[in-house]
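stage 2 :: seqdesign
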């Protein structure tokens, strides 16, 4: 199945370079290019994109607010956002995830890694650059903001809280299964059930909830 990608960046040369890279992949196609956040939201609605590669700093409407509008639009429920930026800072990582982004990469990522990231996020998994993730954890402990999702971990069973903690630690379904003695399918079922209970869009939001609720801390994550 072809992944339909929308590119949002205010630099024309950057967009064109990304477009050439995406079009070089047999399983992807570029369905639009946006120079502003507002244009990204409009094209996401009009272009039937599966995934938006979203820059943070853009004129008219920044990438975080554009991500928030896309995530809040019921008609765009299936559209994923992969934030790609040169600004590798705690504030942007936290705000991008809270806004509804499913992944975060910095622009010095190698081309093959970007394509793999698009595939990962389009498949419904969360993706975070390893470097920023460590700082993200520390920041959540100082953050007063409440969880992004609808419920809280108190509604989860003991096993589900264990799974949530492992998701927060960055483990995939296979790794969760190995840790808890479950099959990958059973681990995936637990993750899906947790997302439903917490009202989370995807695994990235589960990471947010895990840290903001204290289920995961730097000492146990």
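stage 2 :: out
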């Amino acid at each position: 199945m072809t992944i339909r990608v929308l590119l949002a960046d205010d630099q024309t040369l950057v967009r064109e370079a990304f477009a050439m890279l995406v079009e070089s992949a047999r399983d992807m196609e570029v369905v639009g290019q946006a120079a502003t956040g507002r244009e990204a939201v409009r094209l996401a609605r009009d272009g039937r994109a599966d995934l938006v590669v979203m820059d943070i700093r853009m004129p008219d409407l920044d990438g975080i607010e554009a991500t928030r509008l896309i995530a809040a639009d019921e008609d765009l429920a299936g559209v994923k956002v992969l934030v790609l930026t040169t600004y590798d800072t705690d504030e942007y990582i936290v705000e991008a995830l809270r806004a509804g982004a499913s992944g975060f990469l910095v622009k010095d990522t190698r081309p093959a890694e970007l394509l793999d990231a698009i595939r990962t996020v389009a498949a419904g998994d969360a993706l975070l650059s390893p470097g920023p993730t460590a700082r993200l954890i520390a920041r959540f402990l100082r953050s007063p903001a409440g969880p992004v999702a609808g419920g809280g971990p108190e509604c989860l069973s003991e096993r589900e809280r264990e799974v949530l903690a492992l998701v927060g630690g960055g483990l995939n379904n296979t790794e969760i299964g190995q840790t808890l003695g479950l099959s990958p399918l059973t681990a995936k079922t637990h993750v899906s059930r947790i997302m439903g209970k917490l009202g989370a869009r995807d695994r990235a939001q589960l990471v947010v909830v895990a840290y903001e609720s204290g289920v995961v801390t730097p000492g146990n994550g």
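stage 3 :: structure notes
- The radius of gyration is 17 Å.
- The beta strands are 3-8, 28-34, 51-54, 80-85, 103-106, 127-128.
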